[in-house]
Amino acid sequence: MANFRTHLTVAVVASSAAAVAGFGVGLYGVSTAVFGAIIGTIGGLLPDIDLRTSRPAKKFFAIAELFLATLMAILYASHHVGTDAVINALAVWVAVFCFLKYVIFEIFHRVTVHRGMVHSVPYMAVFALLVVYGAYHGLKLTALVSWLFGGFLFIGSLVHLILDELYSVDVWGLKLKKSSGTAFKFFESNKPIAYAVLYAILGVLWIFAPEHETTWQALRQAMIDFPK
Ligand SMILES: [Zn+2]
Fold first, then answer.
1. How far, in Å, CA of 228 to CA of 224, rounded?
2. I need a surface site. Which of 39, 68, 108, 196 has the fewest CB within 10 A?
3. pTM of the predicted model as reported, rounded to 2 decimal places
4. Residue 126, CB-side half-sphere exposure with 13 Å CA sphere
5. Cα–Cα distance between 128 and 155 in angstroms, integer?
6. 47 CA distance to ligand 1 centroid (A)?
7. How far apart are CA 114 and CA 57, in angstroms?
8. What is the pLDDT along the chain (228 residues), one digit of tens a residue?
9. Residue 162 · residue 184 · CB < 8 Å
């Protein structure tokens, strides 16, 4: 397993590179690029969030609560005008902060064990879809930006899982360590019901998710336009 510092460094570099690339091909503006890089970085740390007792995890939770609450408040304020907007933005900040701290993260702590389900591809896909839902329905962002934010989170978390997987192979890439094959996982045979529920949640979230056709079109168009 890679350590926290390695994960953070790789997450920042990979997310920034992806954000800059999208901006470079004209997929989105500066603010989406900045938020995308930050969300990707959070995704890069997300699979280890159930290490509740560890110092990095505590730090991560504190930062994530503050950052996400502030992000939501800013996004709210940027989409609403009028005298109530500031008060409402503050209310959004408090609501998001408390919701994350006492509901979302609390649930994760209770139902997960490290290297358990959180550290898996389907769990990260659920997280990514929740970002899409939150951005689209909660913040009223466009379907394109919502999917991009979800995509940043998902790709960041995949980079994390791949990194852990690489670290389970020794430096020469020849001898596999015991933990090999347990980082980048889709299923665990000793938890069939838990994974069945997880995939069911994933399926429902996918079915009712905002339309993603415009996102694919925009991505395709960006690829086509890129060399020009
Ligand atoms: Zn990990």
1. 8
2. 196
3. 0.74
4. 18
5. 9
6. 5
7. 11
8. 667 788 899 999 999 999 999 999 889 999 999 999 999 999 998 888 765 556 666 777 788 888 889 988 888 888 887 778 888 889 999 999 999 888 877 776 665 554 578 889 999 999 999 999 989 998 889 999 999 999 999 999 999 999 988 877 554 444 555 555 577 889 888 888 888 888 999 999 999 999 999 999 999 988 887 765
9. yes
